[in-house]
Design a protein that fits this description.
Blueprint lengths: L1 H13 L6 E5 L4 E9 L3 E5 L8 E5 L3 E5 L5 E3 H18 L2 E4 L7 H14 L5 E3 L14 E8 L10 E11 L8 E3 L13 E9 L5 E4 L4 E4 L2 E4 L5 E10 L3 E2 L4 H4 L3 H5 L5 E2 L3 E10 L3 E4 L4 E3 L3 E2 L6 E4 L2 E5 L8 E6 L14 E3 L8 E9 L6 E17 L1 E2 L3 E2 L1 E3 L5 E7 L11
Parallel strand pairs: 7-28, 25-32
Antiparallel strand pairs: 1-2, 1-5, 2-3, 3-4, 5-6, 8-31, 9-28, 9-32, 10-11, 10-12, 12-21, 12-22, 13-20, 13-27, 14-15, 14-27, 16-19, 17-18, 23-24, 24-25, 26-28, 27-28, 29-30
Length: about 425
Amino acid sequence: MKTLSIIALALLCAGHAFAQDRVITKEGDVFDAYRIDIGGTYIYYTKEDKDGAALQKIAKGDVLMIKKKDGTKIDMTEQTTASSQTTRTETEEKTGITHVKIEDLSTEAKAANDKLIAKINAPVKLNVVEKHQKDIGKKEASSSYACFGVTPNSILCDDNIEVTCHFGKLMKSSKNTPAEWQNIVFNAYFKGTDNPAILFSIKNKTSQTIYLDLANTFYVSMGQSSCYYVPTSTTTSSTSSSGAGLNLGAVTGALGIGGIAGTVANGVNVGGGSSNTTTNTTYSQRIIAIAPLSTIDLSAKYIFGNEIKSISKGLRYELLFANISYLYCATANFSPKSQSGAMMFGDHYVYSFDSSPIKMSFFVAYAKSESCTSEKVLSSHYYLNNMFGTIISGWKGVWGNISNYVPYFVMKVTNNTDQESFPKQ
């Protein structure tokens, strides 16, 4: 009788025209849905028809029918069986990880990839404030714009996804507060970007759900790898109680109580009281679904970490202020006694990938099926390609800005004679 009622409800829904798709469950529930994508185990959808809308899911086995806005119907009883057979066939035919190369891209994807690379590697110059043009080459720089390019063999997109990198910082208001991403790299009162960070966005270019495998997605800086998947779990518990009672478990042994009291004395509340404890465990998610034609941001990463260290020759990661233990910045030293000399205001150094002292890479793994048995990996490689010496301070102002938008952050510049010198090119 219940099945007949559900079918009757489905037929009733089929007789009306809707402005969006509708999902009909086997329990008889009906709800609106947008951007529906039928996966191997789940049906994915959004509750709003807009980019960035939260992706929802429901088990395919719980759905009776999908009523499309054009009037067509999808019988999920048949769809579930066919999908299961297709998934097994695809798994048998092709599994493993494929590292995408330039020659693997379609003509359209290669053209889009070349355009993205050209945008990042666009020519850049220092625009000097008119009143300070007379100081070019005469005053030592206190800061430097560190601009980054991407190698020609980088894969920033294929026919399915597109990768975008953003430079910013992980802002902390105190040592023990969580770091928050800010898409800001410049502060007129600081000589360097505090806690410089990088964030990667992944855009789904298709009309189907794309699945990211965070266990095979990495950010690599100066040879140090950081995986986006950390297999951790968080457990929370809450206890509620009502009434009043006496727990006899602590006293019956000493008093020698038997009978009914002895029976209930094993830690059970008596006298009308009751308690209930609920425990929930949440595990980190390895596979992330990206809704069709939408974009997600991965977690931001420190470019150089969050501790004092030597990064490379003449480049240190140190506290921005000696008395604040949670703000770090990259500091390049140009010793006046070195062969290349100090960095001056207006200086422009150009590095190739081979000569660059700072290199970073990003690897993203994705699949078209939730099982991720067949994955593609896109890799992109970034390097310091331009440095511009400038002067930045709150009381002197900003003496020069870079033209065009390219990925960059601000380095602090020093001129210590007793330290190694950062390489000039």
